[in-house]
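Protein: RAB4A, member RAS onco family
Species: Propithecus coquereli
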Amino acid sequence: MLSLMYARMLASQNIVIILCGNKKDLDADREVTFLEASRFAQENELMFLETSALTGENVEEAFVQCARKILNKIESGELDPERMGSGIQYGDAALRQLRSPRRAQAPNAQECGC
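Structure follows.
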């Protein structure tokens, strides 16, 4: 719980956190029930998925859900990748130009490269 508090204190206020319950394939050896973990995630405003590294179940889905949540926050304006300290940025300069509404103007002749 302390680590979660520190993550929220030190990161962007729009941080996306997912709680992954690993070893889903070992149901018999479970120490935390699905309900307990799900309730903890809900009480702490976390996304929650049970995963299995052994079978690969929900491993990719965890990343996909995080990416979707981040994209939704960008599209709603909660997150601005152009703002310093937002905790996120576009990886490719061409994508920054395509996605940024502030740069939607036509390029001038010097930038064109025609």
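Remarks: The two ends are 56 Å apart (CA to CA).
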